[in-house]
Amino acid sequence: MTIAAAVDSYLRHVSIERGLSSNTVSAYRRDLGVYATWLAAQGTDDPAAITSAAVSAFARHLGTREETPLTASSMARMLSTVRGFHRFMLEEQLVPDDVAREVKPPKLASRLPKAITVDQVTALLAATDGDDIQSLRDKALLELLYATGARVSEAVGLNVDDVIDEDIVRLTGKGAKQRIVPLGSYARAALDAYLVRARPALSVRGAATPALFLGMRGQRVSRQNAWLIIRSAAERAHLGVEVSPHTLRHSFATHLLAGGADVRVVQELLGHSSVATTQIYTLVTADTLRDMYTTAHPRAR
Questions:
Q1: pLDDT by residue (tens digit) across 94-108?
Q2: Distance (Å, rounded) from C-alpha 290 to C-alpha 285?
Q3: Which of 175, 180, 234, 298 is most buried, taking the most CB atoms under 10 A from its CB?
């Protein structure tokens, strides 16, 4: 079997058997395309001929190549893909050994999530006020993102039937894992207004679709369109900070923890597989508490 054939087999595995999203599979395809091209340049086309020295050399190549320099996070992602590919080949008995197991990705600096304040969120949501169909759609989208902590891909992937029992939404996350998240009263009211007064007018502009959020031509809103909707609202709100769909997800988690929510409840709402991922938000809350303590306590400074 050639390396190209092994890559195709691995991509089918992660897509069908592991149920990874099309975006993740596309990223794996790009990463392994770079790896396969580099191996071909070294004269290697047989998976069994790849050595641990070759994998280490590829890792060094990623850190030194001049044509398209990679960030540490991009290098870590690409090497993680390569390691997963080699584990798969060993499990499928395509190779006698996992020659990539000793290759370590670069250590990444710990970065705290960026969140905006409750007042800034309020101003952002107020910037979508209006009775026209676009404003009703935009407010429903932003209210849902902040009310549920949904990833933008989860929000734009929603269908009308995913809004259940009036105050609950069913989100489909990474690996096609579903979770149930409650909707607050503001998000519920915004969705009701959109579904009654805006979505019917949008749906007749395009082909029939079960999508919850529709563009102005009646098609499902894309991730890029959602990003533009949020950026436009942030500009109208004059927040003075960059706001993305993930900013609302970070703010959702940070504000819940600051309000006393249990970290494992927030983990479930965010759809994190490990509580360690969620615990980074507790650092944000601790920083906020420290600032408040330093400002308020007479003997803190």
A1: 999 999 998 887 665
A2: 9
A3: 234
